[in-house]
Amino acid sequence: MNFYPTERVALFIDGANLYATAKALGFDIDYKKLLRFFRGRAVLIRALYYTALADEQEYSSIRPLIDWLDYNGFSMVTKPSKEFVDSAGRRKIKGNMDIELAVDAMRLAGVIDHVVIFSGDGDFRSLVAALQQMGKRVSVLSTLQTQPPMIADELRRQADQFVDLADLEKEFARSHVAAPIAP
Predict the structure, then answer these.
(1) What is the DSSP letter of 157?
(2) What is the pTM of this model?
(3) Is 63 left (phi over 0), alpha (psi -120 to 50) or beta?
(4) CA–CA dist 55, 53 (Å, integer)
(5) Residues of the chain with pLDDT under 50
(6) What's residue 96's pLDDT?
(7) Integer Cα distance of 153 and 141 in angstroms
(8) What CATH class has 8-84+93-172?
(9) Are 32 and 150 in contact (CB under 8 A)?
(10) Across the strands, what pairs with 162?
(11) N or C: which end of the chain has fewer CB within 10 A?
(12) pLDDT for residue 11
């Protein structure tokens, strides 16, 4: 991944998309390593993490992660997810954060040089094009290593730089310490 030591970088992490990509690749993200990686290569202005939360639940399995990220250098952007019943009568939960991510990227564009988007969602192609027209470099992190690929072809082609998350597993993967075996 190409960075210049003095360029100002912002990370825009589509939480659900990154989680699904890492899970499909068979590893968990170590967010402390992820921050260290970018801070060591450029001037990290902001790391934003986007996720929807089930509002009606007293406890959400994602809550400990959100709290940890919030206290450890990430700006959290959340909104309540919405529950609905589709035409087949199945209960579905919707929590798309695309608009929030795009608006924040455009707001920060004036103070950053390089935008890093953690998502493979093709809906971000127009955002990438708009940022490029403003003179910003845009990198996209997702993967081609799954079947089907987690990155939309149009987003990969639009980005200045596509980085396969599989290539960064050693940099970003959480270490799993095996429990000692009792005699």
Answers:
(1) H
(2) 0.89
(3) alpha
(4) 6
(5) 177-179, 183
(6) 83
(7) 13
(8) alpha beta
(9) no
(10) 140
(11) C
(12) 98
Provide, for the chain, the percentages of residues in helix, strand and coil under a 3-state DSSP scheme, each rounded to the nearest 5: 40, 25, 35
CA distance 11 to 115: 6
Peptide bond into 148 cis (omega under 30): yes
Indicate the DSSP class of residue 134. T
**How many whole angstroms separate alpha carbon 150 and alpha carbon 106?**
24
For the chain, give every domain's residue range: 8-84+93-172
H or E segment and range at residue 141? strand 137-142
Distant-in-sequence, close-in-space partners of 70: CB < 8 Å, separation ≥ 6: 76
pLDDT digits (tens, 9 = 90+) for 62-85: 888 999 999 999 999 998 887 777
Q: What is the CA radius of gyration of the chain?
A: 17
Alpha-helix residue ranges (DSSP H) falling in 40-113: 63-71, 98-108
Separation of alpha carbons 140 and 80, rounded Å: 26
